[in-house]
């Protein structure tokens, strides 16, 4: 019995040691657990086991965008386009990595549900305070907060809320897409981060885009371990009057199902 107990406990202890290796701090609230972990010069924000952002705190890569947000990611390519100052709305704050793309004259308005994420991003990561853009953070449900904004408020909307185990479906429905499009200026762009371990959300986004007479393009970037960049999949949606054929029923507030998109 003693040997069996030791054998049963050993993997659990190994998991605990790995889970908390390099721990800087940890917190928990209604939305789950949040850990800040240092791995050499790289600091990570983890919600459960999901990386929600990271940052090199020293060395030649200090402050560079990492995780799902490198220059070759869908969001990186979208926000790197040259042009006049723009107003960008971003659903999901994470470590604030996308603020790196802010330029002089830009306004980046983040919507974040979890107050603990806001606290940690401002205190333990440097992206927000170093950004050249004017940074605003709005706490609360992003769809409700965005719906309260004036029409045609943004040049770009970034929706980064689907990498976790339980996705906020209300941000991927016909009604949500209508809100996004109403808040975009003519010629605007929506970038949706759909990297997910369990769900293939590409057909969901394509169906929503087609239903709204928008084009949709998939951009996949490869991992780069040396730069702490993770493989990422983004969908870029534009209201240009073109649309792909719909192959999946459109999700709505009244009907949606993840079963057809399980990996």
List keywords for this structure.
4-stranded antiparallel β-sheet; single chain; alpha/beta; 263 residues; globular; 7 helices
What would you say this structure looks like, in words?
The protein has 263 residues and is of the alpha/beta class. Helices cover 24% and strands 29% of the residues. It has helices at residues 2-19, 74-79, 115-124, 127-130, 142-147, 174-183, 202-211, and strands at residues 23-29, 32-39, 42-47, 50-56, 87-91, 107-112, 134-139, 154-159, 184-193, 215-221, 232-238. The strands form two sheets. A seven-stranded mixed sheet has the order 7-6-5-8-9-11-10. Strands 1-2-3-4 form a four-stranded antiparallel sheet, with helices on one face. Strand 2 and strand 3 (42-47) form a beta hairpin. The longest helix has 18 residues, at 2-19. The radius of gyration is 19 Å and the shape is globular.
Strand order of the largest sheet: 7-6-5-8-9-11-10
The best one-word shape is globular
Taken as a percent bin, the fraction of beta residues is: 25-35%
The averaged pLDDT comes out at 92
Topology, element by element:
Layout: H1 2-19, E1 23-29, E2 32-39, E3 42-47, E4 50-56, H2 74-79, E5 87-91, E6 107-112, H3 115-124, H4 127-130, E7 134-139, H5 142-147, E8 154-159, H6 174-183, E9 184-193, H7 202-211, E10 215-221, E11 232-238
Parallel strand pairs: 5-6, 5-8, 6-7, 8-9
Antiparallel strand pairs: 1-2, 2-3, 3-4, 9-11, 10-11
